[in-house]
Specification:
By secondary structure, the chain is α+β, with helices and mostly antiparallel strands. The protein has one domain. The protein contains five helices and seven strands, in the order H-E-E-H-E-E-H-H-E-E-E-H. A hairpin with a 4-residue loop joins strand 6 and strand 7. The N and C termini lie far apart (91 Å). The model has no long low-confidence stretch (mean pLDDT 83).
């Protein structure tokens, strides 16, 4: 009888451990992350931590670079903890005009196209070795990238092209 009880106990423990290991595994690749300013330079450029999602790693990497430039143009970006130069703690967008994305849709579609103008206003000069991180699932890959965005030159380009007022 003791042998049967021990076998029954071991079978119960095995079943419990099997059920415990079947818990849901959540990937960080499904979460949306906002860009963060992690540094500023005296030349008017900002070092931004951005995320991009795509089908493969190279496309996710490029999407993260586009998202960094896009956020500088259209979105308010929070400074990472301890990096804000002022009390506000946010980098204001260059273009605050209501419905600007729709109004200048053709311009920005060409600007953010593959190999488009946006590439002139971001670089990987602040990128450290192994700082790009990838999360991969069956459906997508998410890239976390450090990008330097030349905000001053970007602003001058938008003024020159008539998107921003002088």
């Amino acid at each position: 009888m003791k042998k049967q009880n021990i076998l029954l106990l071991l079978a119960g423990i095995a079943m419990l451990s099997l059920l415990a290991s079947c818990g849901s595994q959540k990937s960080q690749a499904y979460y949306d992350y906002d860009s963060r300013v992690i540094g500023t330079e005296l030349d008017g450029s900002y070092t931004i931590r951005a995320w991009g999602r795509a089908r493969n790693a190279m496309d996710a990497y490029e999407q993260a670079r586009k998202n960094a430039v896009y956020d500088v143009i259209f979105n308010q970006i929070q400074f990472a903890t301890g990096t804000a130069p002022s009390t506000s703690g946010v980098l204001k967008p260059l273009l605050m005009e209501v419905n600007a994305k729709e109004k200048y849709e053709d311009y920005f579609n060409a600007f953010f196209a593959r190999g488009g103008e946006f590439e002139k206003y971001c670089s990987m000069k602040e990128k450290r070795l192994f700082s790009t991180k990838y999360q991969k699932t069956n459906a997508q890959t998410q890239a976390q990238v450090t990008v330097c965005v030349y905000r001053t030159q970007l602003k001058a380009k938008l003024i020159e092209d008539g998107i921003l007022p002088r």
